[in-house]
Amino acid sequence: VFQEMAKAECYFINSTEKVRYMQRYFYNRLQFLMFDSDVGHYVGFTPYGEKWAQAANSLPQWMEQRRTAVDWYCRNNYKVFTP
């Protein structure tokens, strides 16, 4: 059975003062691609992931949306994510 999964995560340090957004992609339980707002671009962990990272990093509008996800996704939903 083959399985693909994408996961978006927000990490809040000191309320919304320091926020980290991560988007991770898995195939067969192996992480092959990740975006980290602290790094600012996609990183591939397999040859397949490196190709995806190179393609995604070359799209300026897509990357701008990922980089601003800290504000429109994480900070905007802070009350939903925290107990």
TrEMBL record:
Organism (species): Pica pica
Signal sequence range: none
Source taxon at top rank: Eukaryota
Keywords of this entry: Disulfide bond, Glycoprotein
Annotated MHC class II beta chain N-terminal domain residues: 8-82
GO-annotated cellular components: MHC class II protein complex
Cross-referenced Pfam families: MHC_II_beta
Protein name: MHC class II antigen beta
